[in-house]
TrEMBL record, chain A:
DUF112 domain span: 14-436
Keywords for the protein's UniProt record, in alphabetical order: Membrane, Transmembrane, Transmembrane helix
Membrane-spanning ranges: 14-43, 55-76, 102-126, 132-154, 161-182, 194-218, 253-276, 351-373, 380-403, 409-427, 434-454, 466-488
Domain of life per record: Bacteria
Classification via InterPro entries: DUF112_TM
Protein name in UniProt: Putative tricarboxylic transport membrane protein
UniProtKB/TrEMBL annotation, chain B:
Short name of one Pfam family: TctB
Naturally occurring in which organism (per UniProt): Marivita hallyeonensis
Keywords, alphabetical: Membrane, Transmembrane, Transmembrane helix
Membrane-spanning intervals of the chain: 40-59, 94-111, 120-138
Residues of the DUF1468 domain: 14-147
Protein name in the entry: Tripartite tricarboxylate transporter TctB family protein
Superkingdom in the source lineage: Bacteria
Amino acid sequence: MLDALLSALSLENLLLAFLGVIGGTIIGALPGLSATMAVAVLVPFTFTMDPSSGLIVLGAIYTGAIYGGAYSAILVNTPGTPAAIATSMDGFPMAKRGDGDLAVTLSCLGSVAGGIVGALALLFLAPPLSQIALSFGPVEYFWLAIFGLSLIATLSRGATLLGLIGGGIGLLLSCVGSAVVGGDVRYTFGLTSLLGGIPVIPALIGLYCVPVLIDMVIRPEAHLERRAEQMRGFRLTEALSLMWRSKFNVIRSAMIGTGVGIIPAAGGSVAGLVAYSEARRTAKTPEQFGKGAHDGVIASEASNSATVGGGFIPTLVLGIPGTPPDAIILGALLVQGIRTGPQLFTQQADIVFTFTFGLLIATLLMLPTGLIIGRYAYRLIVSVPKTALAPAIAFLTIVGSFAIEANTFHVLIMVSLGIIGWLLARIGIEASPIVLGLILGPIAEAGFVQGWLIGGAQGDRFGMFFGQPISLAIMALTVLTLASSGVFKRKTRLECST
Amino acid sequence: MTRIVNQWRQALVAVLSIGLGAFAISQTNSMSELGRVFPTTASLIAISAGLGVLVQIILRPSADTVANEKIDHFRAGLFAATMLVWALSPDRFGFVPTSSMAVFAVAVITRREPMSKTSILVHAAAGVVLVLGFSLLLSEVLNVRLP
């Protein structure tokens, strides 16, 4: 292991990790250019490197891209990657009130803490933790998605019914196209372009970014409040103090991120939402969530960065990619002639441990790079006049929604959903419940239909859905979340009436 | 007055939600038994929530959720139209020319002060430079596909 550490600390690997973090952060910060795309775009450059260096670069790009998504989430209310959805919920309100620099620093510290926990889990607990991935069946996915959807009650800020309408719209949007199981063609109205469904990333860009752009255009005031006294430093001391006060939130969120990362296909967006929901449920001041709560930003960033290390556990031990970028990295491993599986940790341990230490180093390098890039990103966004900022962001939304599948129809979907999202926001329906429905709908539906079919074949549908220990644990968490949301609302009403 | 406006908004939300749910359910006839489970559930959520909003308006009329403010509908409409044209045009007129025009249009719509001839030229040139610069960066350096 010491040899692997020394190998990871070589000048060449340090430089590669550094460049990977910078490249990943910049790509992740651009709306629509996801971590998957960052890894996919840069993977060919690693084929000429030796396996451990190539893996370090890919891990560093992935780590940087997941973190980079926080910038646009905080500064323009557009998650740069789906993993940063929950970050925008409190990050943007913080930026609106003039605390964007603090939000960026908090997101950096949270990402580093989460990334370290994920990497340590990969280093020490990979083989036993990978068994968790195998114990997740369709029903567990279904309940996990339902848990995520219960966040609608949290997000609706005293207007649960409007939140439910938004969630219903999102779920209906997720039904468009071929059904995930069975292949029913639904709500396409004869348009072949809709057979693949509503694309998530263009929808995210549209629902989050276009309404901000419209508001930017129609309002005379500046996009973000600029407070002169806050333009001098990183506000690092303040952020560290907040992190220390949120230490249990950091640890819990990082563990959630690692756990969700291990589950194949769940990904950073689910991890962020689950950690955000738990942070709100356990917070002393849950009413601050959605209005710029520090804990919301910390929870989301710590958990989504922890999915990086967590996702590598099933990728390396079982050959099952935990997240989409893991799938690309798995392909790169195969090209390099590395066979994944439990024997990897014994037969090619030097490569695995060098990579894991490289991931840890890349996460640590994210601290200085993230703080510096974040600082300049914040200064840029608050300093550039709206007449330059609005066209530049609009341009990136067009490119970002096209780039994933080179499809101009996706651009049209992005713009249309954005305009609809702005109109819906005018009548009280926010984007977040719609996005939750859109992202979690297919996971819930696939889990439900598969569980229903398997339960039917086994003659015990009730036992299938309500008899599994992991399902019961997730259901208990869902009930707790909904109950705490109800108690909080009653408390708020009582306080308002007295 | 605010309360009445908000009640109208909420009533509109409720009617739209019920209408959308009813329409979505009406489309499920052609689906298989398993394929219609989720759309029906989602529609029922939308319809129930819409009915709930209507009941809330009747029982608790003071539940305001949206603050009223003056909206610059003209600018909002112009911006939305620009974005829609931008989304539809690259295939016909090319990405760089369309985007340069659209970037310039968005800048003009955003600007509140009157523009001099020099200012128009500067904005137009800046639009072309921005689009060309970003396009080169994205397509050549990052290998991102452009329309």
